[in-house]
Automatic annotation (TrEMBL):
<comment type="similarity">
    <text>Belongs to the binding-protein-dependent transport system permease family.</text>
</comment>
<keyword id="KW-0472">Membrane</keyword>
<keyword id="KW-0813">Transport</keyword>
<keyword id="KW-0812">Transmembrane</keyword>
<keyword id="KW-1133">Transmembrane helix</keyword>
<feature type="domain" description="ABC transmembrane type-1">
    <location>
        <begin position="53"/>
        <end position="238"/>
    </location>
</feature>
<feature type="transmembrane region" description="Helical">
    <location>
        <begin position="160"/>
        <end position="189"/>
    </location>
</feature>
<dbReference type="InterPro" id="IPR000515">
    <property type="entry name" value="MetI-like"/>
</dbReference>
<dbReference type="GO" id="GO:0005886">
    <property type="term" value="C:plasma membrane"/>
</dbReference>
<dbReference type="InterPro" id="IPR035906">
    <property type="entry name" value="MetI-like_sf"/>
</dbReference>
<feature type="transmembrane region" description="Helical">
    <location>
        <begin position="216"/>
        <end position="237"/>
    </location>
</feature>
<feature type="transmembrane region" description="Helical">
    <location>
        <begin position="60"/>
        <end position="79"/>
    </location>
</feature>
<keyword id="KW-1003">Cell membrane</keyword>
<dbReference type="GO" id="GO:0055085">
    <property type="term" value="P:transmembrane transport"/>
</dbReference>
<dbReference type="Pfam" id="PF00528">
    <property type="entry name" value="BPD_transp_1"/>
</dbReference>
<protein>
    <submittedName>
        <fullName>ABC-type nitrate/sulfonate/bicarbonate transport system permease component</fullName>
    </submittedName>
</protein>
Amino acid sequence: MRGFAQRWLLFAACVVAWQVVAAAAADPFFPPPSVIGRQMYGLARAGAGTGDVLPSLLRLGAGFVLGSLAGVLLGLAIGRSRWVFQLLDPVLQFFRAVPPPTLVPVFVVLFSIGPRAQIASIVFSVLWPVLLNAADGARRVEPLHLETARAFRLTGPERLAYVIVPASLPKIFAGLRLALSLALILMVFSELQPGAANGIGFRLQEATTRFDYETVWAAIALLGMLGYALNAGLRVVERQVWRGQP
């Protein structure tokens, strides 16, 4: 509790310092937090919550869930077969090395301009870190645990549910945390592309072209808050999952 309070006191001190320096500089490109907060409130009253934030979060949620499910299922399947893992490892490493933003134009061609291409780019960014971590976790299951499960005559699905998945959870959640950051980046990047009609990234781009730096900073601050909230929510889910383990 003391460490928690210290961290937030440090954060508050940084905000106060930002406020003092920005107010003294009176630079329109570097507004103080009080101006950014007022701009965020004004945008919220103007309907930005349902017009931009909600569509962004829906696309982020859809892409993250689909990519995570596919990554966990494929990762566990690949990780439990040494032959399949060695066969696919070059392919996995190749696609992991491809920066997801570079494929956004490819998804636009495949799915046309719109939410489908945006969600597909998020799915791609989420898939690889989750898949590779799940595969690594499945490969590192203690052989003694598997032999014990066989001794108790557990079926394949039971070994998966009671031995392999629990043993892989640390790696899976490590991949999910990394994937969540990538999903947030791809959410914004896909909304910066031509044809986007709403979203936080779209509003950020539109404000930049109008030199509306108060809105630009409001969007940046909102992204920071969303990233923090989503990561905190994922940690809560992780703790709940661990509590449910025997």
